[in-house]
Amino acid sequence: MMNTSAVTEFVLLGFPFLHPIRSLCFLVVLVTYSLCVLGNGFILTIVLIDQKLQTPMYGFLCNLAFLEICYTSIIVPKLLQTFVSTRTTICYRCCMAQIFFIFSFGAIQLLILTVMAFDRYIAICKPLHYPVIMTKKVCIQLATGCWLVGFAYNFFEAVQLWTLPFCDSNVVDHYLCDIGPVLSLSCADARLLEFLGLLSAVSIVIITFSLIVVSYIFIISTILRIPSSTGRKKAFSTCTSHLAVVSILYGAIAFMYIRPNVRSSFHLSKVVAVLNTVVAPMLNPFIYTIRNVEVKQAFWRAVCKTGGPLKRSFLGSMDDKEVLE
Question: What are the subcellular locations of this protein (predicted)?
C-alpha cells in the first residue's frame, strides 16, 4: 500500500513572479472580467428585447454569451484571490468540479461555434431552404444538444479523476484546477487518465475544427460565385466575427492542450490560459458587435423606446431611416 494522505484542499500558486505588481494585475483582471460580464450581458439583453434579432444566428450567439459568463465566473474569482491573498486554497470537491466545468464549458463552446458555422453555411449556400431547415424547434434542439453533449463528453474522465489518490503535496502550480497540474500530484499512475484526457481533447477539437473548415470551404466557394462585389462583401461580412473568434479559441487550445505531455511548460501555459479564460471571453462580445450593423440598430431602437430627453441628443446626428429601420 502506498503511503498517502487524504487531501481535503489544494493550494493554488497563481503567479508568484508577478507578486511585485499584484495590485495592478488584480485591477486589470477585475476590469477585464467586468467588461466580459457587461459585454456578454449586453448581447443577451439586446437579443431578448429586440424581436428583429431573435433569429437562429443570434440565438446561438446568446448561448455563447451565457456560456462565456459562466466560464469566466468559475475561474476569475480564484484568480483574483491569488493576487490579494498570501495563500489561496480551494476545497477538493470544488477543485474536481472546477476541472469538470472548465472542460465541459470548453467542449460546449466548440460545439456551439460548430453549429454557428453550420448556420452560416445554410444561410449562404442554401438561402431559400434556410427558413425551412433552421426552424425554431431545430435551433433549440441544436443548442440543447451542444450543452448535453458537452457535459456528457467529460463525465467519464471526471469520475476517474475523483477516484485518484493524492500524496502529501497539495500545491497546484496554476491559478485554477487544471488537469495537468492536478494529475502531477497524484500518487497513482495517472498515465492512462492523462492519455484519455489528451485523446478526449484532441478528438473534440479535431472533429469540430474539421466541421468548421468544411463549412467554410463551401461558404467561400459560394461567395466567390456571387457576381457582384457588394454581394460578396455583404455575405462574407456575416462570417468575419465568427472566424475571428474561432481563430483565437483554436489557436489557444492548440498551444495549451494538444501537446505530447500536458504536464510540461506550466508557467507558459498559465500565461496563455489567462488569454483564453479571461481576455478572449471579454473580446468576443466586442468582436460580434463592434462592426455588426444589426446590433447597433437594435441598440438605437432600444434607446428610442426608452424615450426621454436623451433621445434627441443621441439620435440627432444619425440618419432616421437607419435608426428606425
Answer: Cell membrane
**Per-residue pLDDT tens over the stretch 305-318:** 765 544 444 445 45
The rounded distance, in Å, linking the Cα atoms of 135 and 153 is: 26
Answer yes or no: are the C-beta atoms of 168 and 265 closer than 8 Å. Answer: no
Question: Other C-beta atoms within 10 Å of 201: how many?
Answer: 23
Q: What is the pTM of this model?
A: 0.85
d(CA 154, CA 150): 7
Q: What is the pairing mode between strands 88-91 and 9-12? A: antiparallel
Average pLDDT over residues 257-265: 50
Long-range own/partner contacts, residues 220-223 (CB < 8 A, 24 or more apart): 222/124, 222/125, 223/124
Write down the pLDDT at residue 321. 46
Q: 36-75 in b/e burial notation, b at 16+ Cβ within 10 A?
A: bbebbebbbebbeebeebebbbbbbbbbbbebbbebbebb
Contacts 24+ apart (CB under 8 A), 264-269: 266/173, 266/174, 266/180, 266/181, 267/173, 269/178, 269/180
Ordered alpha helix ranges (H), 155-228: 155-162, 179-183, 191-224
Helix runs in 257-289, H state only: 266-274, 280-289
Share of the chain above pLDDT 70, in %: 87
Asked whether the beta carbons of 47 and 211 are under 8 A apart, the reply is no
